[in-house]
Amino acid sequence: MDKKAVDDNVFSEEMSNYKESPNFKNFYVDLEVEEYTYNNSKVSHLESNALFSEIDSKYSDKIDNNESFSISHKFKDKDCIVNFLAIENFKNLPIAYIISVSEIVGYEIFSGHIYLEVLLVSILVLTVLIFTYILSKYQYKLRSASENDYLTNIYNRKKFYQLANKEIQVAKRYNYP
Fold first, then answer.
1. Which of 58, 70, 64 is nearest to 21 (CA)?
2. What is the C-alpha R_g of the chain?
3. Quick one: which of 24, 25, 129, 150 has the fewest CB in 10 Å?
């Protein structure tokens, strides 16, 4: 919780419910929430403090400005998503953060294997090229079959008239008899 908001709005007898955050300088930690979190978490106090001190050193400007953000962070050879959700009061003033840390399961399989992604994309591109080649080959055969006589393999009447009209147009353009 934001130190200033707690100092300004919490009664002095209630201050015993809060302690200064060991990781974020302008925040207090609600003791009940902290106890509940650590009792139901797989992460120890020391691991949590180490994780948040790494994050605070890189993202202190966002934390100081009370911005909501998410980051992907590698901690102790585990890939994690860390979400910081800024909480505002009814006056739209930032008063706290909800922080969640989730391990990305399965991400480590692909994170270091860019060659696998390149291979899959290459196979996809190659498949498209082969399909295009086969399609154009069949299109050429179909066009040829529609223009040529099957027995004599010379142009049929339709193709003959197309070529004749083309030559007549050329002759007219250049004034040939």
1. 64
2. 36
3. 150
pLDDT score, position 173 = 93
One domain, residues 147 and 91? no
Q: Which amino acid is at 159?
A: K
* 3-class SS of residue 67: coil
Q: Which residues pair with 80 in a beta bridge?
A: 73, 103
Q: Please check whether residue 116 is in contact with residue 92, taking contact to mean a CB–CB distance below 8 angstroms.
A: no
Low-confidence ranges of the chain (pLDDT < 70): 41-46, 105-113
In degrees and rounded to multiples of 5, residue 19 shows phi and psi of -140, 160
Residues 73 and 7 placed together within one structural domain of the fold = yes
Q: Which of 50, 33, 31, 53 is nearest to 41 (CA)?
A: 33
Task: Decide: pTM greater than 0.70.
Answer: no
Residues 6+ apart with CB under 8 A from 177: 171
How distant, in Å, are the alpha carbons of 126, 154, 164, 166 from that of 160? Answer: 39, 9, 6, 10
Domain that residue 20 falls in? 3-108
pLDDT digits (tens, 9 = 90+) for 43-90: 666 677 777 777 777 777 887 788 888 887 777 777 778 888 888 877
Separation of alpha carbons 73 and 142, rounded Å: 57
